[in-house]
């Protein structure tokens, strides 16, 4: 188990280094000069050249990359061109909001998705299954911005239960979390249903019945743990993508999260900020997959042994 | 509902049989019929089946795949897969009717008074739970014993089924055990509440021959302790080795019933004779293995007369007209054939 974790951590580091290189190269081969964008169309050439030299953007690429890597290792992600503040500070502020939003959304999505999936699997092809799967299909296919606007209209505009937008008390996180979680709940429900229904057809389920377990015990004690493997992987992938920012939701609800920060960085060609947000998203994804591997190994002894 | 306290005891010691009134069968099934709706119409995988198992008796049901033997076992357990259901007949366990019980009452019986072991010991155990826990679970579902008592009883159960190093095995997962050990774990699980009846559905089919012999010896020892066993198999060798009496099943019906020695010496039904020839002709030497021509009939299109008619060498016109009744040939020997 320890070995598994160490090996996966090593792999994660290699992936991160590779991604750092890719982000670095890609941001420099796309057309457009960040200094020109920053200073506007009417900046004179001399100033642009001076700024470029000041920021080290005129050096050879390999030298720039080594400098960049060194800074990252020291925890220095540079200063945002557009906002003039340290990138780490900007990201820390945005990450707080994104984390709360992600937790709310995950709670909503996992709770609802698991419940719907379990009910659907147990009553497969009967009325409860049809109803829940109809909703989950709606959740998967409904665009997030539409759901978000519908929620805003109903609960903020008409009923006035929650604020329309902004980042304030916990109340301001409820609607964005529901809008986000609605979609992932559909996915969780569908995969739970498929996986659990398959597990319920296994031989050991009949053994459990034969020793006198009732339906609830069979499903919750015997089947769910086996069925959770694929479900958990999906849940963790969802959570890590939530953690790296929900662009659309944050935009519709005007929340200051990582997603909006990244969009700002892209439109302003803010290289340091863009590098940092992209690297952060990658790190979250890699760590998420590591967490999924570890949890799967905890759930299933057969995986533990292979590792 | 009796709720046994957990005590320690030797399953193999005689005495359980004495608890039942004399003459009462452990299991008495009569006229059992199971209906299973399918897309193309309703079929009867079990049709008018009657059988009995006396205390301490091992009774076999033999037949080809799809003849209804496993479905009969599941009907006795009350575990017919939906949407199948029992539409006629009775199942009496030690004199008590259990076919019409509520799900809750059936659950109390399953695992404590009747238990079952299956063909695939690998897939029959939960892969993500320790085997010791799975065996103790059967006990804890039916008695109010503490964790510690359950552990002690499970350990004793592992010893009874001759699992080597029982303490270490308790903490292992199914994939860490061999097929034979897994089946022993299944038997320990089935026997831990000391049921009146053990149903063994092809218990040795997935095992190799030496392990098969060990498992069969184990079943015989359980029987000596008073447990009745209903053994389902397509393997006549297994049946011949341990069964006292045998039922031959075909297309959902019982075709012949006899003591094992009688059936093997003088099978009366052409199907029984065919089965025996198909499995025994190797012993006689050089002639090729005999087979029964044709295949198991489609239960949706059963012939009007004898179900085996289309494959039967002795078929006459009367066989196509009506299904023959089970008729008594001599005490304990019945056959469903006109000849």
Please provide a written account of the structure.
The complex is a heterodimer of chains A (307) and B (339). Chain A is mainly alpha-helical. In chain A, 79% of the residues lie in helices and 0% in strands. Chain A has 2 domains: 2-73, no CATH class; 91-306, Orthogonal Bundle (MetI-like fold). In chain A, helix 5 (87-122) packs antiparallel against helix 10, helix 6 (127-141) crosses helix 8 and helix 8 (171-200) packs across helix 10 (215-243). Chain B folds into 2 domains: 27-113 and 195-335, Rossmann fold; 127-194, no CATH class. In chain B, helix 3 (131-142) packs across helix 4 (147-160) and helix 4 (147-160) packs across helix 6 (179-191). The A-B interface holds A 202-204, 206-214, 222, 225-226, 299-302, 305 and B 77, 79, 103-104, 107-112, 115-116, 118, 120, 123-129, 137-138, 141-142, 173, 175-176, 186, 189-190.
Average pLDDT reading of chain A: 84
Secondary structure tally, helices of chain B: 11
Query: Which class do the helix and strand fractions of chain A yield?
Result: mainly alpha
Give the full name of the CATH homologous superfamily of the largest domain in chain B.
P-loop containing nucleotide triphosphate hydrolases
Major sheet of chain B: size, sense and barrel closure?
A: 8 strands, mixed
Number of helices of chain A: 14
Proportion of beta-strand residues of chain A: under 5%
- Give the CATH level 1 class of the largest domain in chain A: Mainly Alpha
What is the structure about, briefly put?
The complex is a heterodimer of chains A (307) and B (339). Chain A has helices spanning 2-29, 34-39, 45-54, 61-73, 87-122, 127-141, 144-158, 171-200, 203-210, 215-243, 247-252, 258-267, 271-299, 301-306.
